[in-house]
Amino acid sequence: MTTAADRTAIAPVLDGPRGLPLLGSLPEFARDPLAFLSRLASYPADQVRWRLGPAPVVFLNNPEMIHEVLAAREFTFRKPDLGYAFRHLLGDGFITSRGPEWRRKRGMVQPAVRPRQVRAYAEIMSAAAQELASQWAPGRRVDVTAEMLALSQRITVRTIFGTDSGVREEVIADSMLIAQHQIGVEFRGLGPMMPDWMRTPGRRRLKRAVDVLDTEVRRLVALRRESPTERDDLLTRLLAARDAAGAHLTDKEIRDECVTMYVGAHETTGTALTWVWYLLSRHPRVRERLTDELRRVLNGRVPGYEDYARLPYCEQIVKEALRMRPPVWMIYALADEGATLAGRPVRKGTQVWMSPWATHFDPRWFGNPQEFSPERWARDASTAGTVTENAWFPFGGGTRVCIGVRFAMVASVLVLATIAQRFHLEVEPGEFAPKIGLTLQPEGTMHASLRPVTTD
Ligand code: HEM
Fold first, then answer.
1. Domain total for the chain?
2. Of 41, 148, 94, 74, residue with least CA distance to 391
3. 274-292 tens-digit pLDDT
4. Is 314 assigned a ligand-binding role in the annotation?
5. Is the ipTM of this complex over 0.95?
6. Where does heme bind (predicted)?
7. Structural contact between residues 388 and 367, judged by C-beta atoms closer than 8 angstroms
8. Which residue minimizes the CA distance to atom 9 of ligand 1?
9. 259 shares a domain with 167
10. CA–CA separation, 154 and 125 (whole Å)
């Protein structure tokens, strides 16, 4: 692995597109956000300055600086407000919190996703994948995105609320779907500019869905408090959690953290898996190597937590898919008093944009970036130099790094290993360009036909 500093020096700062008076480059960004980000990434500079309406924005093109800003969030940079829909659904969960409140809550949730706990969730992950594969029949045509989002939803609901029959999975799933859809709508459109008091039909639907969700989560929390048996789900961990002063989370805080973890986990992991199948179907050689590894290691067995470490090629495929199609395509930071970047002051209020999407395709950091090559992630020396430290950041980094990295990687590998032992998903021809919403999803319906894996 090389470091960004090993690369040829480029200009420290350049002015990017000039844009229009008042609007800056907002129209160009809104027209095709991903193309605009790629354009910014093509400037030969570590930092590219431009304007989003009246707001000054710095786009970072250098992994070391991205690393520096991500590490400084919660100190001299902060996460900006992600808008009404996001806040209304997540409440005061720790994604939307800041400072001591964030630290307290993150500290209380963290034990629920540490590796020992993820080991307990692994069984749910493989079982849900096995359940899905058992419902599939050879030759059937499936909508890959819908299937993977539904699978991720099942895994998420069951790891958070448990597997007992008292949990009405579909009530939670349906309300979440409506709410997440509205977040995506607001991310894409004029949502960030609409005041909170404005009521659109979409916002009214969101409110109704959140009311239903709250009633269901309250019911589940009350049930657990009535019969507090020890279980291996996140809700059990949250009910038991205590902060440094020994205080428990209130019911409202538990609701907010459950929803936060759901939103963090569901669409991101489901989308990552969708792209894994797409990329595999376009690269038969990779699929062959995968089938080989699965035969050698599992030989038809359903994988468990211990198998994660025994399936390095599966892990490499997931990492490479997260490079080429990072579900979280953009990460923001807002400069506070005293913010600096590469030793220079940054004006308070400046937005800093960092895009896994754009950086992951920069040929300075990844050799042949357009090529889907899980081999670049192999630990042996033959592939050194094809990836750059800190240039791969699908999970963000620094203080506010994704809390679910281990969960997401284990879930993705176990789902891939379970299903790929039984089926190849032959995605129908088409480009399925990525489009932005809450996450980076394929444009159009991605259909695949299911071809059974032969055992000879
Ligand atoms: C492939 C799947 C996933 C991807 C690509 C992903 C990506 C990310 C990224 C980029 C961030 C940082 C956002 C920022 O800095 O603004 C983040 C934060 C977060 N993620 Fe994930 N995530 C994934 C899965 C999960 C899972 C499985 C969970 C829960 C089990 C989760 C829960 C969270 C939470 C709660 C945060 C907020 C952390 C904080 O603000 O302290 N994510 N995720």
1. 2
2. 41
3. 999 999 999 999 999 999 9
4. no
5. yes
6. 402
7. no
8. 395
9. yes
10. 9
